[in-house]
Every structure is written in C-alpha cells, then in structure tokens.
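User: Please fill in residues for this 177-position structure.
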C-alpha cells in the first residue's frame, strides 16, 4: 500500500484547496483530483456556495441543510466536513446526532424545520417533486431572497456531494479553518 497526496475543495475560498495524505485502503478507490484539472469549474462552485450562504443569511441553517443533504446522499466527506463546521461554530452534539430524526426532535426551530423539509424534498426529487405544503411552509418562514438562497444552497450541496463521492474524497481528513 502506498500513500497518495491529493487535494480537496475548500468551499470557502475559490483559490485554495486542502492538501491531504491518505493511505491507499483496500476496497476504497484512490482519490481522483477533479478540481486541479478544472480550476474554473471549481472556482465557480465556490462562488455559487458563497452566494447561496449570503442568500440564506443564517449560517446555522445553511450548515444544517448541507449536513442533512450529505446524510441523505451518503457523502461521508461532506458529512464529516459539515458536522465539524457546525461543532466549530458552536452547535451542540445533540442537535447533530438528532438531525436524521429532526421531525421527532423538538430542538429545531420552525425555520430550521422548514429548511430541512425542503432540503429532503429537493435532495430526493427523483422520488417525487417537493409537495405544495413543504414549499408553502418554507416560503412562509423565509423571505423571497432567503428562500431563493435556500434553494440554491440545496442544489449546491447536492452538486458538492456528487463531486466528493465520485472523486473519492477521503472521509475524516477535513479540519475546520
């Protein structure tokens, strides 16, 4: 087995990537650098990410949305990243542990619940379009700009998940800035 050195996206800075070394683990494909050969696409994704964050206007909701979509998509790299970012931002471990069961946990605000419901509906759009009720609740809770930012944030994290999964970004290597 040999170690490989790769880069992973820094979703906060379009001009930076994070370098990591990971052992070549049997059964797990080696990471593929898809960002280096496509720097313009990478920078565009980072700009989209920042625009979505600015549009949502609430960092906790923004990060909860990214973590929940990543859980649904099975993106280990992004689950690791966004859970660490939430913890570094002061989120409680209890809220992270219960995120997968947010409907049963009274510790989420109305806005967080509306955002999480919309996240699940948009992330699983192949199973059916978001219901009118889910959209109506999100539109009632968020103003027009924040709702639009939320939809863009959901679309963006779904794209990041697909990039991280297909590039085999190593789970556990991310460290918050």
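Assistant: Residues filled in for all 177 positions:
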């Amino acid at each position: 087995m040999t170690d490989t050195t790769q880069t992973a996206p820094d979703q906060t800075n379009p001009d930076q990537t994070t370098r990591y070394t990971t052992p070549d683990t049997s059964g797990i494909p080696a990471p593929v650098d898809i960002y280096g050969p496509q720097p313009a696409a990478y920078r565009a994704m980072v700009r989209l990410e920042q625009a979505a964050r600015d549009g949502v206007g609430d960092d906790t909701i923004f990060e909860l949305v990214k973590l929940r979509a990543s859980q649904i998509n099975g993106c280990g790299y992004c689950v690791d990243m966004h859970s660490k970012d939430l913890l570094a931002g002061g989120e409680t471990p209890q809220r992270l542990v219960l995120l997968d069961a947010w409907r049963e946990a009274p510790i989420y605000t109305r806005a967080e619940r509306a955002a999480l419901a919309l996240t699940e509906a948009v992330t699983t759009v192949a199973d059916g379009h978001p219901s009118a009720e889910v959209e109506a609740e999100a539109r009632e809770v968020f103003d027009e700009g924040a709702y639009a930012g939320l939809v863009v944030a959901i679309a963006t994290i779904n794209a990041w998940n697909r990039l991280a999964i297909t590039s085999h970004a190593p789970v556990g290597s991310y460290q918050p800035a």
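For context: The radius of gyration is 16 Å.
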